[in-house]
Amino acid sequence: MRSSNRLQANTVSVAFQKQEVLKALSLSLPDGKMTVIVGPNACGKSTLLRALSRLQKLDSGQIVLDGKSISSQRSKQVAWELAVLPQSPAAPEGLSVHDLVRRGRTPHQSALQQWSTIDQAAVARALELTGMTANAHRALETLSGGQRQRAWIAMALAQDTDILLLDEPTTYLDLPHQIELLTLVQKLNQDTGRTVAMVLHDINLAARFADHIVALKNGTVHIQGSPEDVVTEDMMSKIFNLPSTVIKDPVHGHPHVIPK
């Protein structure tokens, strides 16, 4: 079965040591939109993102990309369509921003197609989009947390895919840098039309930046839809077991959760 959306999970189940983490979960990512996956700890958020990116083996079900099972497609073909940034990525000490971003072009290289002006232009464009051009020759370890995250996102952008998956990209960042990073990703989504899906812990940031929110509970989709449809007092109670009041943010207009 093929939907109008390019990337979807069809009745996907994943278990670790007989503990089921995803339970016959089905999900279709809206094309060209920014989707945020939320839920309590150990509900399967990161496992779902890894499954969507073919980094996680499934026990049953399938991930479908462009109407075909992603497991049946060549790795290079998948990498032309989908880029993923895992939690807490690591790089060798001394690696420069430019060299990191160059790695995003690896899927486009082959014995017959070496580094080209197209690759260089893609790297330059990714650095510019993320505001990292001036830091291109700095070592990653000399950057602030926010700058490092920008560098990793630039690497994913250099891969030049239509779909971008980010697993907790704001981890370890203070609030100003979280806002800065999410504003950047939102702008990239709006300016380039990329489909973005990310895992976030902060429900208020999810409500502020998402077009579409998916709330997981016990390994399955409990509710999904617009921030206004998903971020409710009932959802906060059922998903997070947190009594709260949800108001309309007076500045941005999105739902805002105030725990009781």
From TrEMBL:
Membrane topology: Peripheral membrane protein
One Pfam family in the UniProt entry: ABC_tran
Biological process, per Gene Ontology: iron ion transport
Keyword ATP-binding included in the entry's annotation: yes
Entry keyword annotation includes Iron: yes
Keyword terms of this UniProt record: ATP-binding, Cell membrane, Ion transport, Iron, Iron transport, Membrane, Nucleotide-binding, Transport
ABC transporter domain location: 7-243
CDD domains, per the entry: ABC_Iron-Siderophores_B12_Hemin
Cleaved signal peptide residues: none
Domain of life: Bacteria
Ranges in a coiled coil: none
Gene Ontology annotations for the cellular component aspect, listed alphabetically: plasma membrane
Cellular compartment(s): Cell membrane
Example GO molecular function: ATP binding
Family the UniProt entry places it in: Belongs to the ABC transporter superfamily.
Protein name: Putative siderophore transport system ATP-binding protein YusV
Native source organism of the sequence: Shimia marina
Taxonomic path: Bacteria, Pseudomonadati, Pseudomonadota, Alphaproteobacteria, Rhodobacterales
